[in-house]
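We were asked to recover a plausible sequence for a given structure. The inputs and outputs are reproduced exactly as logged, with field labels preserved.

PROBLEM: sequence recovery
POSITIONS: 179
GIVEN STRUCTURE:
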């Protein structure tokens, strides 16, 4: 396993890990013109940072981070990466904003084969639907800033429904309850 500066080990298993993270709690009280521009609420900022630290503390630092272009998702990805001290950039992809599970699969299938651990940040209901699809029918309630970690059977390019296993699912309130 590779060590991350100042943190635990980076995942180096035999199968790639796909982590799907829903954006943090967003604000509803502002004057932005579109849903796309809606920012994170203070609670969402804290949760994004907390989840980034959790990933690093548990050795699950992603080597690839892709986010929806929506402001609240991009902020979530950026805050998680900064708090977790990850060595990768956050790439924004317009397909993850309103594209549905097919768009998510398209993005993930294009990952470089050397990527061992990837984080994709986006929205519900797409995240619940994508997780269900990849697990072969499971149903998860996906609160804001939650992360589902899926172990992918085979290569990214071959990702298909029913060919992942749920490794873990963590919500911010669970981490708050244990700290």
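RECOVERED SEQUENCE:
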């Amino acid at each position: 396993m590779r060590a991350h500066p100042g943190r635990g080990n980076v995942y180096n298993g035999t199968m790639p890990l796909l982590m799907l993270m829903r954006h943090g709690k967003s604000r509803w009280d502002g004057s932005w013109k579109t849903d796309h521009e809606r920012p994170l609420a203070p609670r969402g900022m804290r949760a994004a940072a907390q989840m980034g630290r959790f990933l690093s503390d548990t050795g699950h630092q992603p080597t690839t981070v892709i986010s929806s272009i929506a402001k609240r998702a991009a902020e979530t990805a950026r805050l998680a990466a900064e708090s977790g001290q990850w060595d990768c950039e956050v790439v924004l992809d317009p397909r993850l904003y309103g594209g549905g599970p097919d768009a998510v699969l398209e993005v993930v299938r294009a990952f470089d084969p050397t990527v061992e651990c990837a984080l994709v940040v986006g929205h519900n209901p797409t995240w619940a639907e994508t997780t269900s699809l990849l697990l072969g029918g499971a149903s998860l309630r996906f609160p804001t800033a939650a992360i589902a970690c899926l172990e992918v059977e085979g290569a990214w390019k071959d990702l298909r429904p029913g060919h992942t296993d749920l490794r873990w699912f963590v919500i911010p309130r669970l981490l708050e309850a244990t700290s």
